[in-house]
Amino acid sequence: MTTDEIIKMAFELGSAVAESDEIVNMKAAQQQVSADQKAYELIMQYQDAKTKAENKLQDGLALSKIEEDHLDILEQQLNSNAIIGEMMSAQEKFDNLMQAIYFAMNQALGGGGCSSGCDSCGGGCDC
To answer: Which residues of the chain have pLDDT under 50?
Structure first.
């Protein structure tokens, strides 16, 4: 098989993923979050607090109890927001699809089938 044929197949795979329910649902959920000011602001607040905490830890500094509590409260608010929950669920399904694709490619490169049955790869291999 030529390089051009492999690249063409990769493009076809990318096109198929772009049309999948997983990515369509993920993009729709992301648009919902962007359109909901409260959800969007909550994500921005969490990302800002998380970045500041990570930077502080990288600098060798400990987080104060107040900072830890603030992050915990923001995480609880994220987890209790239905729109954000839908987005996180859609993101997880898309991530699972991508992991299954990567797994199938690794199996093909290694020349092996599934060692633990087709449940581990989603049934896409030649067990």
So the answer is: none
